[in-house]
Amino acid sequence: MSKGMSLQELAVELERQKNAKRDFMADTKELRVEPNEASPTNLSLHIGQQDQFPINKHAVRQIGARLEIPAKYVDRLAEKHPDLLAWNVNTLFEREPETRMVRVLDDNVRAFLSERFRPLDNFDFANAVLPKLIETGCEVKSCEITESRLYIKAFRPGVEREIKKPGTHMGDGGHNVIHKLRPGLCLSNSEVGAGSMAVQPGVDEEWCSNLALFSKNAMKKYHVGRKQGNDQESMWEIFTDATKRASDKAFWLQVADLVDASLDGDLFEQMVAECEAKMLGTEIVKPSVAIKELANLSETEEEGILAELIKGGDLSQFGMQYAVTRFAQARDVSYDRQVELEQLGGNIIELPTKDWERIALAA
Q: Where are the domains of the chain?
């Protein structure tokens, strides 16, 4: 299982990153990409006359996307012909100039963003949500900072519901007969434009650590704000100041309210009722075929989910969710992918009957 880091480790790393990050606003005429074998992508970015930073894969992909260069082509050139990719990028920077935000961490370019991107930074996000989690009696299950996102997963102890598939004998949960659910949620944020800040409610299984995240009641805030900076200059570095912190204070209070709302008892009861209802209805005819109907799974993931489905012995809609979220706990699954699979599990529960039947009856 990708357990991530402890809450104390998260606090230390957020403090370190807060002091190690730099943000620039620049006209692309002031930017220049060059080959650099020491960079993780074989490329570096010059900002003005002095600053030069290696570029990570996420930022290279963002540069390519902005210039409408296909991702596969960007990856191929970065690996085999970085000089050719640099020429393409620099030519387009010059011919189609615009102002962009460049985010740097540990002297590496990590994001290439719109000038309207609103930096909702992880340090401030954590300061807004963690006190609310403590106030509501939640326990942090795990947390992680990946290249693209911050995640905090938590659950609320003391609020539990047991459900079981009708017609099955009672057990201890070890064979998926009884499922002991409690309110759970995943809080996430991206400083690099990899999606919105999100508060996703879900159900956490106490006995097996599965977490299914529901999209129906997810709450999101996008990193979009006013045009930033000084229009009279072609390049400048952005500094955090008291004015920015004051303007963001009301926003972070709203975020704390989102966390509170996602832990509402009525919402949890609705999710439990939906899980229980999805134990009924059409069962899977051919598991190996049904799994292929799920979107965006690798062959390895399909095989792992199939093994969990057979092991669990529950071929209902809920059983498919359980197999997906159980596989998400595998040791070699990255934290980013683990969360995506937990979201897929919630999406399976939320599927309308006709869509589930298409998957269950696939032959």
A: 21-114, 122-227+249-266, 278-360
